[in-house]
Amino acid sequence: MYRMCPSAPIMGVEVPLATMAGLTAFFAAFAGALLAILLAAPLPFLLLKPVFAWMVRRFVKLVMSEPYNENLWEMMTALQHHPPRIVVENALRASSPGVLERPFGSPVKRMDFSGLVFSPAQLSVLPAPESAHVDLRLTIGPAADKPLKLELPILAAGMAYGLGLGERVKIAIAKGTAAVGTATNSGEGPFLPEEREYARYYILQYHSGHWAKEPETLRQADAIEIRLGQGAIASAVGQIRPVSIEEKARHMLQLPDNQNLVLPSRHAEIKRPDDLAKLVDKLRNLTGGVPIGVKLAPGARLEEDLEHIVRAEVDFISLDGGEAGTKAGAPIMEDDFALPTIFALVRAVRFLRERGVKDRITLLSGGGYSTPGRCLKALALGADGIYMGTSLLWAMTHDQVLKAIPWEPPTQLTWGSGMLADRFDEEEAAGRLANFLTSFAEEMKMAVRCLGKTSLKELNADDLVALDEWTGKVTGVRLATEPYR
What's the total number of domains in the chain? Predict the structure, then answer.
């Protein structure tokens, strides 16, 4: 016969006493080990504390007594005079004699839309019902034979395939924008058929290079944007090094492996301002009437430039402010050229209204847009649509950046020539971009209802108040200290 082992109930289960004894011994040993670790943990600190205290005292004594030319504190005062960014950039210039290339645009703080706030509707003006439909639709080129109609006023800015972004990233942008009914922009790279295939609405950039200008390519566009300049590099000549060009793109451009790609500062067809009208007519006839526009960086002669553009009878204008980003721009171009976006926008709106063409010519604004509020303020000031670039890239990569950091910058995932480009997940990125743009749209709808309105076309500068005199002067918006009239 088998002898029964003594047992005891635990949570309704009979557990043998021997097993219980083993468990008790295990937990006792575990608790003892844990207690020993907790008690021993402070020992290294206690042992090192006198050494650490001596080092601190020694350092403070040296800082407080040595002359500046021998004092490490000299670095602190030097870095206040020359911030770390300047020190690093000058060090990079010292290491190589070429033009410094910096991604994502200028870090210089410029006047933006933060000096404006919306005025909520409450009683004298009632807010719109929470169930009210809000119309965010945008029509680019309403007078064109084939106007471009979008569901959202937020568009993907021109970012070049091959010279900047990788093929997977461009396809992801095409898919993400298509999912929400807005447009993507080719940028100044070679024509990528896969991007056109997945894009629902496709704006082709007509740049100063010799590529992507074949009639069969141009006819695939839903709109064409003649690029004269952009906010981050103005109209500077583009010199793209072979190492920065994706291999497939190099073959498409028929570019030798060791040769730079040059993007001229001027169009061969535009030798004087009046030639723009001829180019617009040529493209309009070639494409059967899709909207033809012009992209430029705003400067002091903005109104003069706009006058020539209006005379050319364009369908839209893309104004790229000084806060705009780029893959690689010289700091002098990013920091010291082009008007801030808000200055350019206000002046352009004023000019187009004075010329009586604001309803006919669509105004797209780009450069530094990163929040729904900032976009909506620009629309209230008179923009019709908003171009976004850098913010889209950050949203798309989301947690994919963890594939790169901390050892490599996230751009190694998105640049076509990046060492991690093959690890970029285009399907995940497309979904993230669609989520991002949908979230933007929902926040903007909420804000429009809070203004007592149901359409972007109803927004105007009266929905805003300025928090300081300078912002009020620049934008023409009344000050928050003044009563509504």
Answer: 1
